[in-house]
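Entry for FE2/S2 (inorganic) cluster complex. Fields follow.
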Amino acid sequence: MTNSIKLHVNGHEHEIEVALNTPLLYVLRNQLQLNGPKFGCGLQQCGACMVLKDGESVPSCRLPVSAVSKSKIRTLEGLADINGSLHKVQQAFIDEQAAQCGYCLNGMIVAAVALLEKNDKPSDDEIRKKLALNICRCGIHSRVIKAVKKAASN
Amino acid sequence: MKATRRNFIKQIGYVSIGFSMVGTVGLANGGFMPIDKTGSLLGTPDKDQINAWLQILENGKVKVLTGKIELGQGIRIAVAQMAAEELNTDLDLIEVNIAETGVTPDEGFTAGSSSIVSSAMAVRNAAASAREIILKIASKKWGMAISQLQLKNGKVLGPEREMSLYELLDGEQIEKTIAKATEYKGKTIRKYVGRPIPRKDIEAMVRGQEVFVQDLRFPGMVHARVVRPPSYTAKLVTINEAELERSPHLLKLVRKGSFLGVLAEDEYQAIRLMEKAKQLAKWNAPERLPGNINVKEYLKTLPADIETHEEKGDSDTSLKQSKKQLSASFFKPYLMHAANGPSCAVALFKEGELYVWTHSQGVYPLRRTLAKLVKMPEDAVHLKAVPGSGCFGQNGANDAATEAALMAIEYPGRHVRLQWTREDEHGWEPYGTAMIVELKAGLDENGEIDGWKCAIWSDGHSNRPNGNPNTLLPAQFLEEGYGHPGIGYRGGAVRNAIPYYDIPNLKVETHIFQGPLRASSLRGLGTYTNVFAIESFMDELARMSNTDPIEFRIRHSNDERSIACMKKLQEKLVGISIRGGEGLGLAFSRYKNNASYCAMAAHVSVDKITGSVQVKKMWSVVDAGETINPDGLKNQMEGGMIQSASWALKEEVRFDAQHITTLNWNSYPIFRFPDTPEVEVEVIDRVDEPPMGAGEAAQGPATAAIVNAIFDATGVRIRELPVNKELIKQAKT
Ligand code: FES
Ligand code: FES
């Protein structure tokens, strides 16, 4: 049973035919063909699927799409500006070479953007706390902290 | 003739160097293209050994075809740096292609350290020979000595003249076999090699471009999920297919023996169908695992093959006669790779041909094995390697690829995407085996180690696809009955079992068992447990002989490079202040006793009320020979340190009589940001030595440094992992 639903993603309004209990993650990846939000656990335990929902970073893997039809969703793809310039957090991840396999970057960047929107001079511990949900198996944590601080200072 | 050709269709001129990617380095497992200590080629490969190519096109572009797959180790940039240096060519002009069967060489598996060594060195040799061929042509044309000429971005420059490769080659296609190059620019000029050149792929990642196998989309692609059985040996008795087929979303229920999968147009519906199928399936699943037991005690009761791996002097007599003796038993539990992105694959079966997109670490061996499983000729099976999430050994990649293929064959004509769930990955990947290491040592009257005995209990450390389908998970559930894959590669258990110290009397013995859980290679294989044991033991022995732990190790070392690492570490620790409840611990090892050197220190703070340990900071000094990319090397080291700390403090695969019970990030926690220490890495660059990867160098020493630091803080000796808080709560100091 599918329904038509309106979604506001990265500044555009989309009308989508989907079962209303479908988690937002699958709609973003499959219907909207976005690569940023990743499937990591589907259990709200790892942060791979994070998106900005009205500015706050939230996992999208269990969030029914019907619950966000009134929200503004921003994904990794929506961070760069219209002419393609990267958001300062994205740029800082490149500058600090804060990646190994890169699977976790979506969640890290999205959570860091949400953090900097509220706190423009976070301490190491504040960064650690904000990113506590985000799993990284490759161990790039120390680089991520440097990248977030670098972005904050720009 | 040439003019005519030019008038019609001019061929694209190039120089192509065929070479061998396998065993180009003395270190690698018995290669046929030996090189000397500095990486110089000592021979040329026969025609049938050529399996890699480096091509310089007339427009100056350089292509390297290499069979390795990027796994976050930055191999791609290392290979590009090597080629750029020898060909004096901007990195932008260099393209590195990764594995695809039929296009790139059969290179076996990507395995951390050896990837950089063998791939990069082979490419360096090929690029240097290509340069020499080009300069030779130019030198003939112009009647000038080669020494007066140089190559730069696809041009040959000589005194007051230059010529593009386009002109120089004039449509000629030169195909040569690698020859011994006379000079490596990378050893002297080092414009690209040895510099922290940034990886180029991170931008695509931060922009959310298509990077991973998980991101692949094809028109008409359908979604698959596997319906997992309750245990390794479960047999499907029935499934109420009629009930499942009532769902309008079910495209197909794939049932092959006890292998069950569902296909749907929509991914979420595939998940729902899988959940429903789980409820509808009836299994015969006898409880076969040893649940509720002490794993360490249990493993010693298993039948084992006992072998003496190394014997030197007379360790029994030495131990008997020694002034002071120490013995201890160490344990490391089953650990999982626990990739952040669960395994995934896309497969298509069309007109009798099978296509699979996979993040497998070895597409050729997988193709061989998969073809046998699906009973198809190998050349009708096409595999394309696409990056996945960092896996650190063999995770579920090969299994997911095989399962996707099995389902695609049952549903021809459309791409089938199989995404493993978190529970699939946590519950079904092949784990790094649990191990026990028992050590005995004796000190002589000078407080030096005279005798050493080591006994190891371990399962095999590698069970990769090897042509026998039983190495692939779904084979266990098909009707054919492929049987248990057995122990696999035994050699992994003894990796680093011999201490890299001078000890006159020594014996190392192995007890290889077939353990209860599925096991295969995990970062560093047996090294992790062996170094954890040896370096904890060295700490105890140093204390017994009242010697500073670094001095004690230096006294037992005769390798200057080991000593240099330890001294550098000592310098870094000057002035570190340790407060109450805190401790500092040290460790050292040389990976495989023939690769990268690593000295490590950890600063921990212990809460004696809760027993919890916080790693505050870790330092390492690494000597990986000639450094190709210092930032890449540091990144590997930092990651290894954090991952090892996580293994030591948090991780343990648990199971009951039925199956694995640690199925998600709550039951199998790993380090999260609040747990992670600050990390600092110093690189000792040795240009005259061959480069060695450092992907595994930190694993053992990091854990040993942490447990030694815990002892320093509390007087509690941790000999079983993960660190047990209860033990720390009982600390007296
Ligand atoms: S995939 Fe959503 S939190 Fe892990
Ligand atoms: S870089 Fe691999 S999971 Fe974070």
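NOTE: The radius of gyration of chain A is 15 Å.
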